[in-house]
Design brief:
Among the domains are: about 30 residues; about 280 residues, 3-Layer(aba) Sandwich (Rossmann fold). It starts with a helix and ends in a 5-residue tail after the last helix. The strands form 2 sheets. Strands 1, 2, 3, 4, 7, 8, 9, 10, 11, 12, 13 and 14 form a 12-stranded mixed β-sheet that branches. It has a two-stranded antiparallel ribbon with strand order 5-6. The protein has about 475 residues and is of the alpha/beta class.
Length: about 475
């Protein structure tokens, strides 16, 4: 008569094999990207090729970066490929995808929570000039996640190195894009990471690491450099546009000389900066001509929205955004919260169930260790000295990171000028001003642009990237 152990062994073996092959199937499914031809809120089939997926960048902690890859709407086999890094503190790259330079934008209309926010085709998308690989990085941004909490403990430098790991794996699975000219791009805080990451990629190329990408350069928009430099440049900028008086400007210049305006070391400078910050608080820093919006004008929409949210993952929304006025630039971020937390949206994008209980525009729970990449300007110097192309652009109405500070550190590189300061044009009118150096570094302003130049000036933004990335003069 068979013992209980003898009966159990074959059953246990079968159970083990089922678990083993199920795990292999899950791993295989995880590795396969999702080809998306329709998205909730958009009427009809997408007029471009969209691929989404995950890439594991930290095996020990199970950390995975989520990406959106959109092929060029021109000639994807020859057009450049741009890696785009988000700005902010662990903010989703979806801001760039759906609010700034991607081929879809939200329709700005009243939202009641009963349907998914609607999308429209964006005719001035940068995908008309290049394929773009949008990455939710670092871990914790957007739909990127870690199975262990330790996986979220990454800063700018470690996060950038994880993106490099991402690229190695992604290009291994997509070798057809290796010949395409490749650029690293980012805006705001992503503009700090971009030159650092570009240099690390260039070092891999020099070391003969494979797969070898066809790195041509990098581009940064309204890039963060350091708090002292970025915030310090607000003083002359806001004086120039009439936000602070001559008297306050002169007092700051006299009494804060040698001091870091973010941490004044004498009483008069501290008092001056308190007055300065009160006046700065009266304008919208990301675009001085737009309405000042604190996003506290009204509460969340009524709770009928719950029926669209993945309850099996979240129960109730824990961080619903306040509803800004439709006149506020932040209204698009408000819509993106409800669009991204919609069940159908997550299914369409191939989001792993249980990976992110609630999508938020920026992950406030985990500090990104801002500033752990030191000497940002040196990375710009190193990359351009190696012959790589660089575009540094600024919306000229951005008071958050004013063009004056950016122009100042670009000038501090002391490279010879090859094309002196002049206007660049679109349709017979100046679209901004530009300066080019002999080391392939171009600085340009976008007239009327804010902290994200293509968000406020999409037509000029597309003209800027199209000309520069194709090697044409602005």
């Amino acid at each position: 008569m068979e013992t209980e152990t003898q009966v159990c062994r074959p059953l246990c073996l079968v159970f083990f094999l089922l678990c083993f092959f199920s795990a292999l199937a899950i791993r295989s499914a995880d590795a396969a990207p999702t080809l998306v031809d329709r998205l909730p809120g958009f009427d009809g089939t997408l007029p471009f090729r969209l691929e989404t997926g995950y890439v594991t960048v930290d095996e020990e902690n199970g950390a995975e970066l989520f990406y959106y890859f959109i092929e060029s709407e021109g000639d994807p086999r020859r057009d450049p490929l741009v890696l785009w890094l988000p700005g902010g503190s662990r903010c989703s790259v979806q801001q760039a995808l759906l609010l700034q330079l991607g081929p879809l934008k939200f329709i700005m209309e009243p939202y009641d929570g009963l349907t998914v926010p609607r999308l429209r085709y964006h005719p001035y998308s940068w995908t008309r000039a290049a394929s773009i690989l949008f990455i939710d990085a670092p871990v914790g941004a957007g739909f990127s996640f870690s199975r262990n909490m330790e996986g979220y403990d990454v800063g700018e430098a470690t996060g950038a190195l994880q993106v490099k790991t991402f690229l190695t794996k992604w290009f291994t699975e997509h070798p057809e894009y290796l010949p395409n000219p490749f650029y690293v791009g980012g805006a705001s805080r992503g503009g700090r990471v971009a030159p650092f990451l570009a240099q690390k990629i260039s070092e891999d190329i020099e070391a003969g690491t494979t797969p070898t990408v066809n790195l041509k350069g990098y581009l940064v928009g309204n890039p963060a450099t350091s708090e002292a430099m970025d915030i310090g440049s607000r003083v002359p900028y806001l004086h120039g546009v009439g936000v602070i008086s001559d008297q306050l400007y002169e007092s700051i210049m006299e009494n804060c000389r040698g001091d870091d305006v973010t941490n004044p070391k004498n009483m008069i400078c501290s008092q001056d900066m308190e007055r300065f910050n009160r006046l700065y608080g009266q304008i919208e820093g990301t675009h001085i001509l737009h309405n000042k919006c604190d996003d506290e004008s009204s509460g969340p929409i009524h709770m009928s929205t719950e029926r669209n949210i993945p309850k099996e993952e979240t129960g109730l929304l824990r961080h619903p955004p306040t509803r800004p006025s439709m006149e506020c630039q932040s209204y698009g971020k408000y819509l993106s919260y409800y669009w991204s937390n919609n069940n159908t949206t997550r299914e369409s994008l191939g989001i792993k169930k249980g990976s992110k209980d609630e999508w938020t525009c920026c992950d406030k729970k985990h500090d990104q260790h801002f500033g752990d990449i030191k000497n940002i300007i040196e990375y710009h110097r190193n990359m351009t000295s190696k012959g790589y192309r660089a575009l540094v652009y600024s919306g000229d109405h951005d008071a958050f990171i004013p063009f004056l500070g950016t122009q100042s550190w670009v000038r501090s590189l002391n490279f010879p000028i090859s094309d002196d300061w002049r206007a660049w044009h679109l349709e017979g009118q100046s679209a901004g001003f530009t300066l080019t150096y002999t080391n392939n570094l171009t600085f340009a302003t976008v007239k009327g642009g804010g902290h994200s130049a293509p968000e406020y000036q999409p037509k000029r933004g597309l003209a800027l990237i199209s000309r520069w990335i194709s090697g044409e003069p602005l």
